[in-house]
Amino acid sequence: MDTTDKDAPRVVYEGRYQRMVVRGTWEYSERTHAGGLAAIILAVTPEDRILFVEQFRVPLQARTIEMPAGLVGDIDAGESIEASAIRELEEETGWTAERAEVLMIGPTSSGASSEKVAFVRATGLRKVGEGGGDGTEDITVHEVPRATAAAWLVRKMGEGYELDSKLWAGLWMIEHELDGTPRAP
């Protein structure tokens, strides 16, 4: 691709967590923290319950159902994806994990943002607190039996909740290896 001065990125706004960039005819957002990466955590309790979080999201002006997630490197730029995922899991849900495994990394919305998301499988879960997020968040934790999780999500959608579409990819990754083979419980 030929890049000329007219195609050089131009920052038109920068805030604490995001900046708006114009490059040629494209307008998009970038994360301002190290790496521009978020982690979505696939977490199943020893009782075979999937952890979901509910919170009000200002851009949507609605309550959402999501898997626990957070920015990588927003507190410590040197923090690994795995360590960040375990920290966010504990902060949001009150559960910690012995291990975290990055399954894949990909763009969240390639036409609107440079941000990428890492799907991280957390295993060896243990309850250590109440969760609910940090002092600026109001997160409700839902522990939903794996066998009824998809139906529960559809019901929540019918109740007017916004559902992060990555939930469906996360459910698939809980049940399968990346090559499509079923995953042992």
UniProtKB/TrEMBL annotation:
<dbReference type="GO" id="GO:0005829">
    <property type="term" value="C:cytosol"/>
</dbReference>
<feature type="domain" description="Nudix hydrolase">
    <location>
        <begin position="34"/>
        <end position="175"/>
    </location>
</feature>
<dbReference type="Pfam" id="PF00293">
    <property type="entry name" value="NUDIX"/>
</dbReference>
<dbReference type="GO" id="GO:0019693">
    <property type="term" value="P:ribose phosphate metabolic process"/>
</dbReference>
<dbReference type="GO" id="GO:0016787">
    <property type="term" value="F:hydrolase activity"/>
</dbReference>
<dbReference type="InterPro" id="IPR000086">
    <property type="entry name" value="NUDIX_hydrolase_dom"/>
</dbReference>
<comment type="similarity">
    <text>Belongs to the Nudix hydrolase family. NudK subfamily.</text>
</comment>
<protein>
    <recommendedName>
        <fullName>GDP-mannose pyrophosphatase</fullName>
    </recommendedName>
</protein>
<dbReference type="InterPro" id="IPR015797">
    <property type="entry name" value="NUDIX_hydrolase-like_dom_sf"/>
</dbReference>
<keyword id="KW-0378">Hydrolase</keyword>
<dbReference type="GO" id="GO:0006753">
    <property type="term" value="P:nucleoside phosphate metabolic process"/>
</dbReference>
